[in-house]
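pinging the channel bc i need a second pair of eyes. not urgent but kinda urgent?? the chain im working w is below, pasted from the shared doc
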Amino acid sequence: MLGKFRRPLESHVIPFIVFGSAVVFCVYYALHAGLDVNWDLRNYHIYSVYAFLHDRLVYDVAPGQRQTWTNPFGVLLPYLAVMFTKPVIGSVILAACSAANILLIYLIACQLFRPALLGGRWVVQCLAILCAVAAGTGPVFLSLIGVSMNDNLVAACILAAVYFAIRDGSAVRQYFWSGLFLGLAVALKLTALIYIPGLAVAVLVLNPRRFHRQALAAAGGFLLTFIPFGATWAVYMYRLFDNPLMPLYNDLFKSELYPSVALKDTRFIFHGVGDFFPKFSEIAAGAHPTTEVGMVDLRYVIFAIFLFVFVLVLLDSLLRRGRHRGLQDSIVELKKLLSLLIFVVTSLLLWGLMFGIGRYAVALEQLIPVCVIGLLAVITQDARRLLIMSFASVALLLTTTVPANWARAKFSDSWFELAIPPELQAGDQLFVMLSGEPMAYVIPYLPATDRFVRFEGNLPISADDGLGQRIKEIVAAQDGPIMTLSPESFDEETSSAALATFGLKKEGDDCLYIDSNAGRLKSCRLIKSVN
């Protein structure tokens, strides 16, 4: 009688234990790492939501640079955490969300292995837990625990989509759920579109006869989340600026507010398929070709090596024993493994060739250990050797990985510890933001009647642009004080020529300072120049 209940009990209890352990780990890591003050948080994560809620999208001009008009839905949770909770509480909330990724990797791994051929479910559980541990200690994933960047949340949605796509059962509704989570991922961050082709091919390989029904179900789920949380923002942006992705891809949308150029971050893009292994080797050596900050990760190199060996073993199996027997004797669900490999490899190629930004590949970083252990299962075809090699591989990752660091500070009673002089709290002031450094995080803490404009940074604006004309109109209409806003070390003289094109010049050297845990900002007086 006890045996009848043991398996259901294990199948329900162990995932809860994994998730609970993941929550504890993520919260501990976030509190140990310190308070998040990353560049994007200071540049637009706070401002984009604040601007939408307080009707400032056209009141100010580009204070968050090219990210000013990003969909606020993607950073709503960090905004609420920063603005309405204590830093420790907000960090705990943000960190706990990352635990979902670890649980999903565990669930995906449980789908890959055959308990009957491995000697029992305990072997599957061990392998799945090893996958979860490796996924939870990836350098980019770790760096994003408890921070405002939503890449871990996007990755969780992608992992959920993968889980529902490969799980046991052929019910069409599971593909609806897969599409629903994929739509949510794309709504959170449009760059998640790169995962759609790989997932579509993976589903086709798993069940080609029912693919059309599965695709329709997935499309329905996708639209159910993407339309309200993503498409509506694009429509809103188009109504405001004639560009649904303002200011990106304006070479296509031709908004009169900005030149017809394709703004794109090309710093990390891979230059062809032949660039992948060298880049993976650089990541292993700590050269961080996919991130702005340092990190070390061997998983991509290990994956590439084992993938090559797997292809050789699979070809040998097909030639020597025949396809049918090779599939039957495998201790891994080979069809699911192939689908997962197709998804990972296809998505890796699209990611590297289109973006190459490490944060956009968190889901792949976490799936690669699952793929590696799955490849080892095919290569070894022995439970004992598989466990030994899996432990060794995960141990190697744990001992060599160095996580990235996007800027942390000590915890205190307020998130930014802002100290604003009374002179800057009078209201009705116009701030001209200079340099390319992130400063828009101070805007919610200044009077609502202040206005902010910016023509420098990663969205350069000239006086002849549509946005530049708006800045000139705002300057001309300003009767109150006009002040600069820049980092303390910034030399305003480097901006004097640009200021002159907007009819402004600096007056004297008497400046005010805003202190924060993210650095000191300077505000100096400007006056309108005589043409």
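so The chain is about 55% helix and 5% strand. and Residues 111 and 167 are 6 Å apart (CA to CA). — does that match what u expected or am i reading it wrong
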